Task: structure prediction
Amino acid sequence: MAWFRRGHEQQNAPTPDAAAAGAAPGTDLSASPDALLTRVMQLNTFINANAGRLPAAAVVAARHLTDTLREVIDTSQVHSLDVYAVITVKGTLGDYLPTTLRSYLAVDRDLRDTPRGAGRTPTQSLLEQIDDLQTSVSATLVAVHNQDADALMTQGNFLRTKFSRSDLDL
Result:
């Protein structure tokens, strides 16, 4: 009789989204533009609150990164964000940039300018990581703008075909 109950248990099982939502308190798993913009503001608040503990160049670079993320999100006013853009934005806002900043802040102040095994200091590594994130998000912004240009070209072709003489007319 266990095989009868198996389907019933699966019907009442929590959805993966519901389980994930409860996994990390305060984590917003929504991909809506408003939720993403709220996360940008929260991250900016975190950056500003720690500006005295971060190198000035890192604060400027991190804020430039969040500005670029906002630009990507703002394109959703024209059309919904591509799945790859959402993944990049959510990953950068929810994990990559905060983890990079928190990892640096966890390093003892006396060790931040001491070269490590790879020959770079933690401060240099922080700046490189933020630069790598900026490169990725900038590429996403370019892709989103190219998608807009492609959509415009497609619309133009449609209109030209719809409202001009057909190539089949003699």
